[in-house]
């Protein structure tokens, strides 16, 4: 059990992009799709599936303004994207910069809350 706890701890340290890459690699290695359980659940509830299709599932996280705490925003960008200092600074200083593209709703909301906590004005597109 100690190995599993260590693994959970290591996975908790992944950025959103690293976690997405891990999912892709596991799907490829095991020949499965993470979307399969969602599809099965949707088949069980056709009305719910119709509502889900109308709802947007992938979002872009866009910085509108870095705000007064630009250094904190740069740190948040680096944490979310693993960009270098220069690239993160340029992203923070450029209006309408996409920090993350085509991420799930939970990941987008998490990134938005982190950036807003750092002082940025953020929009999900």
Account of the protein in words:
This protein folds into two domains: 2-54, no CATH class; 58-124, Ribosomal Protein L30, Chain: A (2-Layer Sandwich), CATH 3.30.1390.10. The chain has helices at residues 2-12, 16-30, 36-44, 46-54, 70-81, 85-93, 105-117; strands at residues 58-65, 97-104, 121-124. 62% of the residues lie in helices and 16% in strands. With 125 residues, the protein is of the alpha+beta class. The radius of gyration is 17 Å and the shape is globular. The mean pLDDT is 80. A three-stranded antiparallel sheet has the order 2-1-3, covered by helices on one side.
Major sheet: arrangement of strands: 2-1-3
Using the coordinates shown, work out and report the CATH topology of the largest domain: Ribosomal Protein L30, Chain: A
Q: Could you state the CATH homologous superfamily of the largest domain?
A: Ribosomal protein L7/L12, C-terminal domain/Adaptor protein ClpS
Listing every helix as H and every strand as E from the N terminus to the C terminus, the arrangement reads HHHHEHHEHE
When the domains are counted, the total is 2
Overall, the morphology is: globular
User: What do the pLDDT scores average to?
Assistant: 80
Number of helices: 7
Distance between the termini: 41 Å
Gist?
This protein is α+β, with helices and mostly antiparallel strands and 125 residues long. The protein contains seven helices and three strands; from the N terminus they run ααααβααβαβ.
Topology diagram in text:
Blueprint: H1 2-12, H2 16-30, H3 36-44, H4 46-54, E1 58-65, H5 70-81, H6 85-93, E2 97-104, H7 105-117, E3 121-124
Antiparallel strand pairs: 1-2, 1-3
Helix pairs in contact: 3-4, 5-6, 5-7
């Amino acid at each position: 059990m100690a190995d599993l706890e260590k693994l959970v701890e290591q996975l908790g340290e992944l950025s959103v992009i690293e976690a997405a890459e891990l999912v892709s690699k596991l799907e490829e290695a095991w020949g499965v799709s993470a979307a399969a359980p969602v599809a099965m659940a949707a088949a069980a509830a056709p009305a719910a599936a119709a509502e889900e299709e109308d709802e947007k599932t992938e979002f872009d996280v866009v910085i509108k303004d870095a705000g007064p705490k630009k250094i904190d925003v740069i740190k948040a960008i680096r944490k979310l994207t693993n960009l270098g200092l220069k690239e993160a600074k340029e992203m923070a200083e450029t209006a309408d910069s996409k920090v993350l593209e085509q991420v799930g709703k939970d990941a987008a909301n998490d990134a938005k809350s982190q950036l807003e906590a750092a002082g940025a004005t953020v929009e999900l597109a």
